[in-house]
Amino acid sequence: MKFTQLQESINKIDPQDPMNPEVAISGYGVLKLKSIEQGLVRDLKELAVRAERGEWDNVDYILRGVFDAKLSSILQTYKELEELRARGGKNSRGIEKR
Predict the structure, then answer these.
(1) For labelling, which of 8, 23, 34, 93 has a CA lying 20 to 30 Å from the CA of 40?
(2) Which residues constitute the domain of residue 56?
(3) 36 inside domain
(4) How many Cβ atoms sit within 10 Å of the Cβ of residue 92?
(5) Which runs of consecutive H residues, i.e. helices, occur in 1-98?
(6) Percentage of residues in the chain with pLDDT exceeding 70?
């Protein structure tokens, strides 16, 4: 079985909050960046609980699936935001330097 790489990209930038764009993750959906970050924090807390219980199969499943997709989408989104900021112009307004 061959797995395809999920593709993440900014779907839509909110002019009122450019640091919280909608992010499209193919095969997963469209979420706001801050929601993805909050979900990843919850996943990390859950991973710690499952690890303490010795539920290693569950830890492995979470890390190789949803966690990886969320982390990749966060990193790719910040990279795209930085590229937009570096190009300048009106589309770069409100995008903070990392």
Answers:
(1) 93
(2) 21-92
(3) yes
(4) 15
(5) 33-53, 56-62, 68-87
(6) 91
Residues in the chain, how many?
98
Integer angstrom CA distances of residue 35 from 31, 42, 64, 67, 89 = 7, 11, 20, 13, 27
List, for residues 40-66, the tens digit of each pLDDT value: 999 999 999 999 999 999 999 888 877
What tokens does 76 get?
Answer: 């790719």
**Could you tell me the strand order of the sheet in which 17-25 lies?**
8-14, 17-25, 29-32
Tokens at 50, concatenated? 């499952």
Cα separation of 20 and 35, whole Å? 9
The CA-to-CA distance between both ends of the chain, in Å, stands at 38
The reported pTM is 0.82
CB 22 within 8 A of CB 90: no
Q: What domain count does the chain have?
A: 1
